[in-house]
Amino acid sequence: MQPTTGNLVADTICRTAEIGLTITGAADAGTLTIIDAAPVTVSGLCPECGNPGKLRDHIVRTLVDLPVVGFPTRLHVRVPRVTCTDTTCDRKIFQASLTCADDGAKLTHRVTRWVLQRLAVDRMSVSATAKALGVGWELVNQVAVDACRKLVYDNPSHLDGVRILGVDEHVWKHTRRPGQPSSFVTVLVDLTPLVTGAGPARLLDMRPGRSAEVLRTWLQERSPEFRRQVQVVTMNGFAGYATAVDQALPQARKVMDPFHVVHLAADKLDLLSATPAT
Questions:
Q1: What phi-psi label fits residue 70: left (phi over 0), alpha (psi between -120 and 50 degrees) or beta?
Q2: How confident is the prediction along the chain (278 residues), in pLDDT tens digits per residue?
Q3: DSSP string, 127-144
Q4: Which distant-in-sequence residues (6+ apart) come within 8 Å of 38 by Cβ?
């Protein structure tokens, strides 16, 4: 298919050219900036059989993009729909894919990177980030969780070299309605680089709930090689975690981390000071 032509100045200002789009129009929708756009180039090849297709019609796909001059932005992208010319192909009609966003996604790729930068580097809250984009809290939170999970789990070596494993609980939600899942999550951290001086500790995973079953299941899902390499497990005083380690990592040494040792000692001192003298 032939490339489209658009407004070079607008494309430069809004940086749409760098994501493979060209601006064809714009509108002010009050709290939103609406930008009409079209792909610069479109592949007309069928994703199923690879044969060329024939243009059928167009649909408008709405994407959340970077804010423009402080206002949330929506891209209305005119995307071709194509009919496969191979009559034997199971894919009769297909929608052209965009380079700026995954099929079915609501946000452009660069918005996902922007969200992570705002949360991790600029230390903005999820609420403030969502407000800047004009979207809901749930969407921004899910985008951040999915992106972080991809960064971790797409790295095939993220569990290599874990000799000192840290386990703790975290209150994920401070309010919980009846019937909802536990407010706790079990957090697993690689403390090996912190102890050896190679770098900071690394977050390995988070699992909903706090119980022996949660930790035992996570450990049993790991490879035998991973379980053999763990020499020390640091944890709080929760007996469930100790039980899980005894069952899944019998060779590992269990220790209580310094924070919880001091916390436990402080609790005992508070208890003694509150006891009436006889």
A1: left
A2: 444 445 666 666 678 888 999 989 888 778 888 999 999 888 888 888 988 888 999 999 999 999 988 889 999 999 999 999 888 998 889 888 899 998 888 999 999 999 999 998 899 999 999 999 999 999 999 998 888 888 777 888 889 999 999 999 887 665 556 655 567 889 999 999 998 999 999 889 888 888 999 999 999 999 999 999 999 999 988 889 999 999 999 999 999 877 666 666 666 666 777 666 65
A3: HHHHHHHT--HHHHHHHH
A4: 4, 6, 21, 22, 24, 77, 78
